[in-house]
Every structure is written in structure tokens, then in C-alpha cells.
Amino acid sequence: MDLMYLLELGINGALSGLMYSLVAMGIVLIYKSSSVPNLAQGALTMIGAYVVLAFANGAGLPMWAAIPLAMLTMMGLGLGIERVALRRLAGRPIVMILMMTLGLDIFLRAVTLVIGGGTARPLDIGIGNDPLFLGPLLLNRAYVVGAVVALGLFAVFVFFFRTRRGVVLRAIADDYMASWSVGISVERGVALSWALSSLVATAAGVLWGSIQGVDQSLSLLLLKGITVAVLGGMDSLGGAVLAGIALGVIEAVAAGILDPLLGGGTRELVVALVLILTIMIRPHGLFGRHDIERL
To answer: Which domains does the chain have, with CATH numbers?
Structure first.
């Protein structure tokens, strides 16, 4: 097989992997701040794209105004989810909170299906369809923009977790009871993490929606996001970025080689295998913190 073709697959795969890391960042933000695995991140990604469409097509706003307004709206939704659905579960067994986020995912997908229907809708955010040329290599323009956005948000959140508020969120994740005992408002901290996660979900929804259209399939990005988050480490933002790149490269190269032989479906198979093998071999991920509890 042509080496340049493999290189092109790998670079585009790395760029798409950085877009997967946007979904994973939302998962990591909540886990890093509250130790809650969020299974509703895929639905939030889909909802974010629908909200942008509502502002752009429904209200007639230009895209440069619709996207920031959608982000603010989604941050409000994240705050509302924490206040209405999750706050009363603080201190309860983690499996109850996990099931609540799964229920939220099902509920949000059902709501959008009832309101928006199942037809995919185009989302034009001004990214051209023409490829970018890197010498003889062709790069997907949308992937390049998405990768830049992902790296920019990663830098912002790395800085945020070094601020006083970010340290407070990390303390909440370590121990709810200890945080309460020293006067930290655990509820506000968890609410902030959901608001930030919803903001990231909107960015991911807009970028992926511009590529594949806005419909229920956007919620399936949860599988890619969960795989990247688990591979990189559920509490590591840097791990999410590096794992996203790795998964994107493996997925793209495997699909480029095996799809012509097997007839397709290789991408989903690779993602599932990476997730299963990571949990079996290194359950805390490549860069996650390995906590050992002694009884």
C-alpha cells in the first residue's frame, strides 16, 4: 500500500481524533470535578447542535451570534440538570448517579426525536468543502478547524484547573465529605462542571454537525468520547487529547486497510476493541490516576 496514502490517513485520523477528544473532554471535566461518569455527554452534544440550528434557522441569527448564544443556553441547561436531577443524589452510591446520567441520555434523545424528527439537517458554519493541501497530502478542512478548536479549549481548561476555582473542583472530586467540612460548596462546584461540560458539548456538536448533519446520530459520539476518556484516563485532560489522537489514527488506518477487504464497519470494531482492551488491561487509562483503596 502507498506510504503517502497511509500518511494521509494517519494525519486526517489524528485530526478527527482531536475532535473526538472534545466529547471526551466534557466527560473528563465532570469526572475530574465530581467523580461522576457522565453517560449523557453524547445527548448533550446532539442537543447543542440542535440549539445552534434553532438560533440560526429558527431565529434567523447569523452563525457568529448563534453559536455563543447556544453555548450560554447549554451552560444553563447543564446547571439545570445538576440542580433538578443530580443535586439530590449527592453522596449516594455512584451507580445511582451513573444510571441517572443514562436516563438523561435516553430522555434528551427522545425529546429531540419528538421535536426535531429523525431527518438529518445541514449545519453550515462557513467551513468550505475543499481540502487543504499539505504538499501531496489532502487534509479535511473541517477536521483541521475542529482540531484547532479542541487544542484551544484544552489550553483554556488546563489553565482553569490551575486557578483557585479549578483546585476547588478537584478537591470536591477527591472527597465530597471533606470538602463540605471545610466550607466548600460542593453543589456549586458540581453545577459548574456540568455547565462547562455542556459548553464543550456544544462545540463538539457544532463541528460534527457541520460534517455529518444534525440528527440522532450525533448522540452516538458518546461511544467515541467514552473510549477516548477511558483510554487517556478519566481524570486527565491531556490524556483525552493524546488518546483522541491515538484512537483517530488507529481507526483511520485500520478502516483504510481493512474496509476494502471486509466491506466496512471497521471503525466501530476498532473503537469497541480499544475500549474493551483498555478496561481489561489498564482500567485507569494511560494517564489516569490509579487510586488504591485499603480496607
So the answer is: 3-118+144-281 (1.10.3470)
